[in-house]
Write a structure and sequence with these properties.
This protein is of the alpha+beta class. The chain has a single domain, classed as Jelly Rolls. Helices cover 15% and strands 35% of the residues. It contains two helices and ten strands. Strands 1-2-9-4-7 form a five-stranded antiparallel sheet, covered by helices on one side. It starts with 5 loop residues before the first helix and ends with a helix.
């Protein structure tokens, strides 16, 4: 049994802060071939999750923000924003479930944010995500400016 409490989240947030990617995960599932993946995602402002979708194989994905604030964006096929929702315990928007084939990304808005994620498995790095051709890759210098443009749409 694993209890998700402040101490557990504090430790995960500390790992995210120390990471060059400004995020850290804790997997509850034990194997990549598990049919349901459950994990905690600790994120800090500045981390970049490139827009992507889960298709072929199609996978559902859900997020609940336990701490902090995280914006979840969905996109049309041409890259324009379809929806933007700030998730967090104090926003009244606690979580969101995405159907397969939905372009989406997450942007951390507040320090020490943690989301609980559930996604259909199994996980295969060769086909887990299709990254959007219209958005910067994680290593691109334009990623920071792209995130700023998305955050500006929350106003």
């Amino acid at each position: 049994m694993i209890t998700i409490n402040d101490n557990f989240l504090d430790q995960l947030n500390a790992k995210a802060k120390a990471s060059s990617r400004l995020r850290s995960t804790f997997n509850f599932h034990k194997e990549a071939n598990d049919p349901m993946h459950r994990m905690l995602n600790a994120m800090e402002p500045g981390t970049y999750v490139p827009p992507h979708k889960h298709e072929n194989p199609d996978k559902r994905e859900a997020f609940w923000v336990l701490r902090g604030k995280i914006a979840l964006f969905t996109f049309y096929d041409d890259g324009t924003v379809k929806s933007a929702t700030i998730l967090g315990p104090e926003t009244g928007n606690y979580g969101i479930e995405l159907p397969p084939k939905t372009w989406h990304n997450l942007i951390c808005i507040e320090k020490n944010s943690v989301a609980y994620e559930v996604k259909d498995g199994p996980w295969d790095p060769d086909n887990d995500k299709i990254f959007a051709p219209w958005a910067p890759k994680e290593s691109d210098k334009e990623a920071e400016k792209y995130m700023e443009q998305l955050i500006a749409q929350l106003q």
